[in-house]
Amino acid sequence: MQNNEGPNICRRNFIILIGKAAITLALPIRLPPQNLFKMKNEQNYEVIIIGGSYAGLAAAMALGRAARRVLVIDGRQPCNRQTPYSHNFITQDGVPPAIIAAKAREQVAMYDTVSFLTDDAEQAVKVPNGFEIGTKSGSRFTAQKLIFATGIADQFPAIEGMAASWGISVLHCPYCHGYEVKGQATGVLGNGDSGFDMVRMISHWTPNLTLFTNGKSTLTDQQASLLSRHQIDIETRPIEALQQQFGKISAIAFKDGTQKPIEVLYAKVDFVQHTDLPVSLGCALNASGYIQVDDLQKTSVPGIYACGDNSSRMRTVANAVATGTTAGMMLNKEMIEERFTE
Question: Which of 250, 267, 284 is the last residue of a domain?
Answer without folding.
Answer: 267
